[in-house]
Write a structure and sequence with these properties.
By secondary structure, the protein is mostly beta strands. The longest helix has 4 residues. The chain contains one helix and six strands, in the order βββββαβ. The strands form two sheets. The chain has a four-stranded antiparallel sheet with strand order 3-4-5-6.
Amino acid sequence: MSHHYSGPNIGFPHGDARLDLTDLFAFPNPGNVGKSILIMNVHPSSSLRPPGQTSLEPFATDALYEFKIDTNGDAVADIAYRVRFSRFTSGVQTAVLRRVEGAQAAGTGDGGQTIVEEAPVSLDREHG
């Protein structure tokens, strides 16, 4: 999946490029085919309107980023991975990842089992 808010007179969701999901990659883990790897990119090219970054924080601290997965083909999420990000301080931002299953996965919120706390956010090819 890829979606970029590019083109004349098109803006970012709520005027914030950190909320613009530009790419989603999903593939099997080469070391364990029973697991998957999910990668998301946000914040597209700075040449779009408004020019430049809308914030210095790579991910919005007040947003809930979610991967929703339908495991039985009924178009309703059965599993959700929810990510919240910390404030961007001294060039560092971390994330909390939670997993939710069942009816809760179809909704939104901060509930769920914590999978990872204070995960470092990768900002370039050198880190992460």
